[in-house]
Amino acid sequence: MPTDYVNPLRDPRDKRLPRIAGPSGIVIFGVTGDLSRKKLMPAIYDLANRGLLPPGFALVGFARRDWANEDFSKVVHDAVREYARTPFSEEVWRHLAEGFRFVQGSFGDDDAFDTLAATLADLDRVRGTGGNHAFYFSIPPGAFPVVLQQLRRSGLADPHGDEWRRVVIEKPFGHDLASAQELNGIVNDVFPSESVFRIDHYLGKETVQNLLALRFANQLYEPIWNANYVDHVQITMAEDIGIGGRAGYYDGIGAARDVIQNHLLQLLALTAMEEPVSFSPAQLRTEKVKVLSAVRLPADLSASTARGQYAGGWQGGQKVIGYLQEEGISRSSTTETYAAVKLLVDTRRWAGVPFYLRTGKRLGKRVTEIAVVFKRAPHLPFSYTDTEELGSNALVIRVQPDEGVTIRFGSKVPGPAMEVRDVNMDFSYGQSFTEASPEAYERLILDVLLGEPSLFPQDEEVELSWRILDPVEAHWARQRGGVDQYVSGTWGPASADAMMARDGRTWRRP
Ligand code: BG6
Hints:
single chain; alpha/beta; Rossmann fold; Dihydrodipicolinate Reductase, domain 2; eleven-stranded mixed sheet; 21% strand; globular; disordered N terminus; binds 6-O-phosphono-beta-D-glucopyranose; glucose-6-phosphate dehydrogenase activity; EC 1.1.1.49; Glucose-6-phosphate 1-dehydrogenase
């Protein structure tokens, strides 16, 4: 074990104490991919820098590249320098990098997995990883069976004594209910369900966790959080970027499978669920499962869904190309880059309250928010002209990028008349707290090492989400005439506005 490690646990009042991972290591499959470089490697460094990783921590990359340990270390170094959130510390880096190893091989190669097993055993000895290893699958689902089978064959899936072995799975978790069930079967055949950590990185975001604090730590909102007061809920995840270099992944998948099936339905679940008996993983899951089971699609899917594909346009002063012109995309692709869907939640709390979910690439700006829009006051003792500029009250959870909460309500305009107009009351993380929010992946990787499953959707949640989305996908697949285009930099296709207009509502323009 290296000797120059400074134990960060000096102050017994240090709140980090219970959240520091024990001896352990992570093996990343798909380590040469974008996710690994932009998110995983920086997050691991940031955790180390915050003193949350144990001295005996190891990171092993597995890929086909002909790299030595030093080459791998250089790749991680460059990724950390470019994308890490916290400042670079030579000392932290040096200690962390002593635990880096690279194993070359393809997934079908028995020898490579035997080398991996030998490498991990060696790390247990020289680095003190204690036989505790997480296998991070940043690979296409098609590769899961062979990697799982290799982990089983090489004995890597079987911990001895107090050791643990966990598997971390990136989305997409299947492309419909049947494939998700099949995948769950394959994974559960090798790892018990408590060792399976499915990543939905939205659940690792501070603002998403704050939804639970907002709802269940306060008295203010609960009495009005129901169909008596709420008119509807809009959940928006808008991106200004296009598909970048992800044509291979994205085409044929589309916005609904990429984002609604996981991130947006999880946001819906946290917004709509009942108070859990406790925040134990099982209780949280019970409530999320209950609400996802109660989600219903309206009968007429033509009227209650919309989809579109970005055409060329202007974004941030730059001319951008359309989806069909992106490299690697077939000119006749009907994959949607924008999706909107109206859902109902059949519970006493939410009866008749629509939840509108929308997501899209190359929209007006990058913003994710949950807007709870309230009914108008039943009676307004003002003249019509005095309230012409009064909208509906709304509570908006700003997930990103300007994290916080906004309450919109009517206020008197200064002056002699009783004119009422919408104003905003804002809470902003940046102003209220000095510490910056950790990246979602920091939180989630640490939770994997700690064996804390609360923020990881279980198989049942994943399957229920596909159950909700499958009929929409089937409906779109039956539609003739292709997919609507929308100009890059706008707020999506006209059909999405028409979908809201049919209900007498409009989308928010965040
Ligand atoms: C991913 C999607 O899950 O989330 C991407 O696959 C999307 O298409 C990304 O760009 C957005 O994440 P974030 O954290 O930047 O909102």
